[in-house]
């Protein structure tokens, strides 16, 4: 039997999906919900303990007391300012040690992972817990990108690769070769909403999501779900392209049905390394 899994839960559906997968497999879980980030999903997410993000000492103690050995970081976390964070002495010590690495999401997550492993925990990947979440290659649903969409996708891949080396964003929206917006701290949903007001006449744009070059695949993989489809349709986009094997696709059948109903394509990209 696998050891008890500690889920440090941010926002969105992913933490709940992991809990359900573990329950189906008979694996024990301990859910540590991050205050202001984790969404209880109308009471469905079984949070065992709540903690603020800056209370590193209390979080580590709670995980140990629960008998957790493996940890997965799951869900959206909005980066707070240092004033909002109110770090305890353990968190303050971590920030002092990592310095400039805290400026980028990937650098910060690597440092947090290193700290957890230094405390005796093992940080595992979401896909190691629930492999069916990974995006498959090829078209999902009834529609496929046309020639113009393929050009926009290629442009999006190029932009994400360039920005990824600077640890900035995992998503871009391209319409007819024009970059309408890139993801920064606001997240993908806000990016889609913002670009809805920037769209040009003619065929709609494409949302492209990829992992950053050299990204540690244990955390922060690009994630899409049915809500992504709804937002893209509302913003006048005509398709979604996500990296196959290195991104998470929630509720695949629901996504495909929603995309078909709205005339959008969804494609899993096989991106050469």
UniProtKB/TrEMBL annotation:
Pfam families: LpxI_C (PF06230), LpxI_N (PF17930)
Ranges where the LpxI N-terminal domain occurs: 4-133
Species this protein is from: Skermanella cutis
One Gene Ontology MF term: hydrolase activity
E.C. code: 3.6.1.54
Domain LpxI C-terminal: 136-267
Superkingdom of origin: Bacteria
Keywords for this protein: Hydrolase
Name used for this protein in its record: UDP-2,3-diacylglucosamine diphosphatase LpxI
């Amino acid at each position: 039997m696998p050891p008890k899994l500690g889920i440090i839960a941010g926002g969105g559906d992913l933490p709940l999906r992991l809990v359900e997968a573990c329950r189906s497999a008979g694996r024990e879980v301990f859910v540590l919900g991050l205050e202001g980030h984790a969404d209880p999903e109308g009471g469905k997410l079984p949070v065992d303990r709540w903690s603020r993000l800056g209370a590193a000492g209390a979080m580590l103690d709670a995980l140990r007391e629960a008998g957790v050995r493996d940890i997965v970081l799951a869900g959206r976390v909005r980066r707070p300012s240092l004033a909002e964070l109110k770090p305890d002495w353990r968190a303050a010590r971590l920030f002092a040690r990592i310095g400039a690495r805290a400026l980028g999401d990937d650098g910060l997550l690597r440092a947090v992972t290193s700290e957890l492993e230094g405390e005796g925990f093992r940080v595992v990947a979401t896909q190691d817990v629930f492999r069916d979440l990974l995006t498959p290659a090829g078209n999902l649903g009834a529609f496929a990108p046309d020639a113009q969409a393929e050009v926009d996708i290629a442009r999006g891949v190029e932009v994400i690769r360039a920005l990824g080396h600077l640890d900035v964003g995992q998503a871009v929206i391209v319409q007819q070769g024009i970059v309408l917006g890139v993801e920064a701290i606001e997240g993908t949903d806000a990016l889609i909403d913002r670009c809805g007001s920037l769209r040009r006449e003619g065929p709609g744009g494409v949302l492209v999501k990829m992992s950053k070059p050299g990204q540690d695949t244990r955390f922060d993989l690009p994630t899409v779900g049915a809500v992504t489809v709804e937002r893209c349709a509302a913003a006048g986009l005509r398709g979604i392209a996500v990296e196959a094997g290195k991104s998470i696709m929630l509720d695949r059948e629901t996504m495909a049905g929603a995309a078909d109903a709205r005339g959008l394509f969804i494609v899993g990209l096989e991106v050469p390394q």
